[in-house]
Specification:
Helix content is 41%, strand content 11%. It has 16 helices and eleven strands. The protein has a six-stranded mixed beta sheet with strand order 1-5-4-2-3-6, with helices on both faces. Strand 7, helix 13 and strand 8 form a beta-alpha-beta unit. The protein is globular and about 70 Å long. It starts with 18 loop residues before the first helix and ends with a helix.
Length: 406
């Protein structure tokens, strides 16, 4: 960012057979082979983002062949978790062009799976608060809209769970969430959800990847980031999903309003500089639990994550230092922590000794499973005996605790 380079296609080194030919033509020898030269010209032809174009041109002028090869001769691999990489210029990075290419491939694959029904059902697209997330979401939406496919595009930052919930709520064929979850600030990503609200499984990932490679050249309207605002096929689902999500969660998961209302417990909450705080407040109000005590230094969205290198609450005590301090000051005994896109949860509890215990993900999962089972049994005693929890795990420490409690 900030680089001003007046470079053009003429700066791309010509395709040369060897250094001797360059010298005979009065040119400085350049170690750029035909494959790399082709990719440079291709990038400069397709990329309309001034910043990333300038960066590639700068590398060409500097004859930085190694960096050019890293940028342009390797491509991000698309897997069941979608894409995740550093932002920057080139096919190996997250940027406008690679988001467009990925979405074009995904669009064609969805068309092959759902045929004309995709133009009735549409797709859901959301984004977190990272650098460029909103623009990547708008470009992804533009690709679908250019093919007359309806898009439910969240107009503001949302937690990742809103996207799969939106897919189910609207009956969409798929969902896209622009986020790199708990990765460092330099990264961004592209998560994909199928019509069942779950992240894709094999062989969808390899099929999408093949379609991406068949649709690399941007379509005529794919760069039109104003299309989402102008198209009659765009809807902003934020208000409706907010309402329906909280209503659904309360109906399925809120079992003890009286206890919630009367509790003396204090909960400290950190959003890890992500999107979660606004939404955790809504959930606590819906469940009639007293408001959380926020970790003020981390509660507002900030794509630079100034207080943590890795904004991952599952890093444990090193990531929760500010939470411990806030909780201790406010006599709070429980800490809840989300990652920046609010689809990951860490929990810590203050012990009688005054020390904090951070639960593992396995322990949290076991507790949630027991709580769901316990409440189901209380509401539906007619189903017992005869109702069971099936547990498949590779962790030997989890199974005995579930067997004991069941």
């Amino acid at each position: 960012p900030g680089i001003q380079v007046n470079a053009s296609m003429s700066d791309v080194p010509p395709k040369s057979k060897n250094k001797r030919m360059d010298q005979e033509n009065g040119m400085e020898p350049v170690e750029i082979d035909r494959d790399l030269s082709d990719k440079i010209q291709e990038w400069l032809e397709w990329d309309k983002n001034k910043t990333t174009r300038a960066h590639i041109n700068q590398l060409v002028k500097a004859k930085d062949v190694e960096s050019l090869r890293d940028c342009l001769l390797t491509r991000m691999s698309f897997g069941t978790a979608g894409l995740r990489a550093a932002m920057g210029a080139g096919y190996s990075k997250m940027n406008d062009l690679t988001v467009i290419q990925t979405t074009q491939g995904f669009c064609r694959y969805l068309e092959s799976c759902f045929h004309e029904s995709i133009r009735e059902r549409g797709v859901v697209i959301g984004h977190d608060a990272r650098h460029h997330s909103q623009r990547f979401a708008a470009l992804a939406a533009a690709v679908f809209l250019s093919q007359d496919i309806p898009v439910y595009l969240f107009a503001d930052i949302v937690p990742t769970p809103y996207v799969p919930f939106g897919v189910l709520h609207y009956g969409a064929v798929a969902g896209i969430m622009i986020t790199a979850s708990h990765n460092p600030k330099e990264d961004n990503g592209y998560k994909v959800y199928w019509e069942n609200g779950a992240q894709i499984i094999r062989p969808h990932d390899s099929n999408i990847s093949e379609n991406i490679l068949r649709n690399l050249e941007p379509w005529p309207q794919s760069w039109d980031d104003s299309l989402p605002e102008r198209s009659r096929l765009t809807q902003n689902p934020l208000d409706e999903v907010n309402k329906e999500y909280h209503k659904s969660v309360a109906a399925k998961c809120c079992f003890s309003r009286d206890l919630n209302r009367d509790t003396k417990m204090k909960f400290t909450y950190t959003a890890m500089h992500g999107v979660g705080y606004k939404f955790i407040q809504m959930i606590f109000r819906e469940f009639e639990i007293p408001e959380v005590v926020p970790v003020k230094e981390q509660v507002d969205p900030d794509p630079d994550f100034p207080t943590v290198r890795f904004p991952n609450p599952e890093e444990g005590k090193s990531a929760l230092d500010l939470s411990f301090k806030t909780a201790d000051r406010n006599n709070s005994t429980v800490i809840l922590a989300n990652d920046p896109d609010a689809d990951r949860l860490a929990v810590a509890e203050k012990q009688e000794s005054g020390q904090w215990r951070v639960f593992t993900g396995n322990e949290i999962g076991s507790l949630l499973a027991w709580w769901a089972f316990y409440n189901h049994k209380g509401r539906h005693p007619e189903h017992f005996p005869g109702t069971y929890i099936a547990v498949i795990t590779v962790f030997s420490t989890v199974r005995p605790s579930l067997q004991c409690n069941s």
